[in-house]
């Protein structure tokens, strides 16, 4: 619910603060006092776009701030968490409209985009302005009403799974058919490229191995010469390291015979001899494997050159070459199996069309049973609102498809047009006078009737509508007398389920208020400003009396006001 509203420097408003209560909050005031300005400011708070022209003269910016109690509102809480905004029991929404056109939005003092304000507003408030009943005249809204009343969200989501899959398969089928001709044209080029790559058949990491091997082959003679020289020094020459160690060993043995301190050194020298022997064996084996034939060198250079050429033509790296090959294989596979692939997609699409049709049929059945109850409920409420002989009907329309090429779902063996909401088009029809045929709302309803029909729908929706706050700007347009009292009673009943803020000019509605506010103009120096005040007992009597008799309040009007207020 909206706990408080503060407006600064907006149009004729200098600075007002309003604390709202649960239940029915009624706002009254003379024509031109600023009631519509108040509703416009609330609209800005809910995300409507702003113009710098709304800033009060001589002020630099307008500020509209609302504080909402969001305890238990899980959708709002999730939205705040998703956007990393501090989650408190109260939600503070603020709009700042600069005279320079620099507008800013805040939620809990965190700067946000206007789109987030709009998203939150859609979850908090349903605002029906004086000329804002157009949604009721749009058949798309009628479908939403039935789905809300029937609590059909799960069935809708189950249908949408198939709807999305049909869209995906249809797109895939279109793309593959559109690619078919081009692939046939490109097939010869693709086959040539694949043949060129496969002739070399490069492997992942092969280039580095070839470069390393080429380095060895190009230095084979040096490697052979160096390893031969090392082997000779270590083992083969008469004065090789191995022979010298042997001689050293004999001398150590003689020394040890005289002084046993040399015994450990003999062991060390034996180990050194083994190390030299191991090195010698390794070097000899390495040398014997060196290939001095130039053919292997030429082969390696030729293969490395072939890989380099492939790199230049197909991406710049060996990885890109192999990637390109995979794409060629995939494209050629598609080209070679177009008929099979298309057949598989068409079978999948037919299966999804049937599944979507089954889901749409089930959804449509639930909608129709819900609509039958809505028709009864709306008629009953309209009667209480003074339309004595109302008829209300929910017309369902669906469209069969004859052309196989038109996108469709299958209900049984019949093809139907469809959209994200199923196969149904729904429109509300009404007759408000005895003997008149049912017609669409837009063609028959007067302003007062539209207001009452909207109120009737809201009354029926009350227990399922998730929006905590409903705002009505002069919903009593075209209503008077006995009917006004019934409209007031309906608003009062509706306020059991929602917080309601309603602007009215009728005393029969104003007297139903849980909290009553009066908007008025006053002069401050050379300027006229709008303000608002919450009325106490006698102030409220006087305000209702004004609604009854005009600016000049009579004793009779005061008496009637007390009777209406039951005080």
User: CATH superfamily of the domain at 1-130 and 468-534, called what?
Assistant: P-loop containing nucleotide triphosphate hydrolases
What fold name stands as the CATH topology of the domain at 1-130 and 468-534?
A: Rossmann fold
Mean pLDDT: 86
Q: Assign the CATH architecture of the domain at 1-130 and 468-534.
A: 3-Layer(aba) Sandwich
The 3D shape can be described as: elongated
Number of strands: 17
Considering the chains and any ligands shown, give keywords for the structure.
567 residues, Rossmann fold, 6-stranded antiparallel sheet, 6-stranded mixed sheet, 18 helices, 17 strands, elongated
How would you describe what is shown here?
- The chain has 18 helices and 17 strands.
- Strands 2-1-4-5-6-7 form a six-stranded antiparallel sheet. A six-stranded mixed sheet has the order 8-14-15-3-16-17. Strands 9-12-13 form a three-stranded antiparallel sheet.
- Among the domains are: 1-130 and 468-534, Rossmann fold; 206-313.
- A hairpin with a 7-residue loop joins strand 12 (425-431) and strand 13.
- The protein is an alpha+beta fold.
- Helix content is 55%, strand content 18%.
- It has helices at residues 35-45, 74-82, 114-124, 139-150, 153-200, 206-218, 220-236, 241-258, 263-289, 294-313, 318-336, 338-384, 441-444, 447-461, 481-494, 507-510, 537-549, 555-565, and strands at 2-10, 13-19, 24-29, 61-69, 90-98, 104-107, 110-112, 125-128, 391-397, 409-411, 414-416, 425-431, 439-440, 469-473, 499-503, 515-524, 527-534.
- The mean pLDDT is 86.
- The protein is elongated and about 145 Å long.
């Amino acid at each position: 619910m909206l706990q408080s509203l503060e407006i600064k420097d907006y149009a004729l408003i200098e600075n007002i603060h309003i604390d709202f209560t649960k239940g029915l909050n009624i706002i009254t005031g003379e024509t031109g006092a600023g009631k519509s300005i108040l509703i416009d400011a609330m609209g800005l708070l809910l995300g409507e776009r702003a113009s710098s022209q709304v800033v009060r003269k001589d002020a630099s910016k307008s500020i509209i701030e609302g504080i909402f109690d969001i305890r238990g509102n899980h959708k709002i809480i999730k939205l705040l968490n998703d956007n990393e905004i501090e989650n408190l029991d109260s939600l503070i929404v603020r709009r700042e409209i600069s005279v320079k056109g620099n507008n800013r939005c805040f939620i809990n003092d965190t700067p946000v985009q206007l789109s987030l304000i709009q998203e939150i507003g859609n979850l908090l408030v349903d605002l029906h302005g004086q000329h804002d009943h157009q949604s009721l005249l749009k058949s798309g809204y009628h479908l939403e009403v039935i789905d809300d009343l029937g609590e059909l969200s799960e069935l809708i989501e189950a249908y949408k799974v198939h709807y999305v899959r049909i869209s995906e398969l249809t797109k895939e089928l279109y793309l593959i058919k559109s690619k078919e001709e081009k692939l046939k044209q490109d097939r010869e080029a693709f086959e040539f490229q694949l043949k060129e790559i496969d002739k070399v058949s490069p492997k992942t990491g092969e280039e580095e191995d070839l470069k390393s091997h080429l380095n060895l082959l190009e230095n084979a003679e040096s490697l052979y010469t160096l390893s031969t020289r090392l082997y000779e020094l270590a083992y083969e020459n008469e004065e090789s390291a191995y022979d010298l160690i042997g001689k050293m060993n004999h001398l150590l043995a003689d020394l040890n015979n005289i002084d046993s301190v040399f015994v450990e050194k003999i062991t060390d020298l034996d180990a050194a001899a083994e190390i030299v022997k191991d090195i010698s064996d390794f070097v000899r084996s390495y040398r014997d494997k060196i290939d001095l034939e130039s053919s292997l060198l030429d082969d390696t250079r030729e293969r490395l050159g072939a890989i380099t050429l492939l790199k230049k033509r197909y991406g710049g790296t060996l990885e890109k070459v192999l990637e390109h090959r995979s794409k060629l294989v995939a494209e050629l596979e598609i080209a070679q199996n177009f008929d099979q692939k298309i057949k598989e997609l068409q079978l999948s699409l037919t299966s999804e069309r049937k599944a979507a049709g089954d889901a749409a049929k089930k959804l449509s059945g639930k909608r129709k049973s819900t609509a039958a109850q809505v028709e009864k409920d709306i008629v009953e409420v309209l009667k209480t609102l003074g339309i004595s002989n109302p008829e209300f009907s929910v017309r369902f329309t669906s469209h069969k498809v004859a052309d196989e090429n038109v996108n469709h779902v299958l209900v049984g063996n019949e093809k139907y047009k469809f959209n994200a909401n199923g196969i149904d088009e729904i429109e509300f029809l009404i007759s408000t006078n005895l003997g008149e045929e049912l017609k669409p709302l837009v063609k028959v309803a007067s302003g007062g009737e539209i207001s009452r029909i909207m109120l009737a729908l809201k009354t029926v929706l009350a227990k399922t509508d998730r929006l905590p706050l409903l705002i009505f700007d002069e919903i009593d347009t075209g209503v008077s007398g006995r009917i006004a009292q019934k409209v007031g009673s309906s608003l009062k009943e509706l306020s059991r389920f929602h917080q309601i803020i309603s602007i009215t000019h009728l005393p029969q509605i104003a007297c139903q208020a849980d909290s009553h506010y009066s908007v008025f103009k006053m002069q401050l120096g050379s300027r006229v400003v709008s303000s608002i005040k919450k009325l106490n007992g006698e102030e409220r009597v006087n305000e209702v009396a004004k609604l009854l008799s005009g600016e000049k309040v009579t004793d009779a009007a005061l008496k009637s006001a007390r009777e209406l207020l039951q005080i």
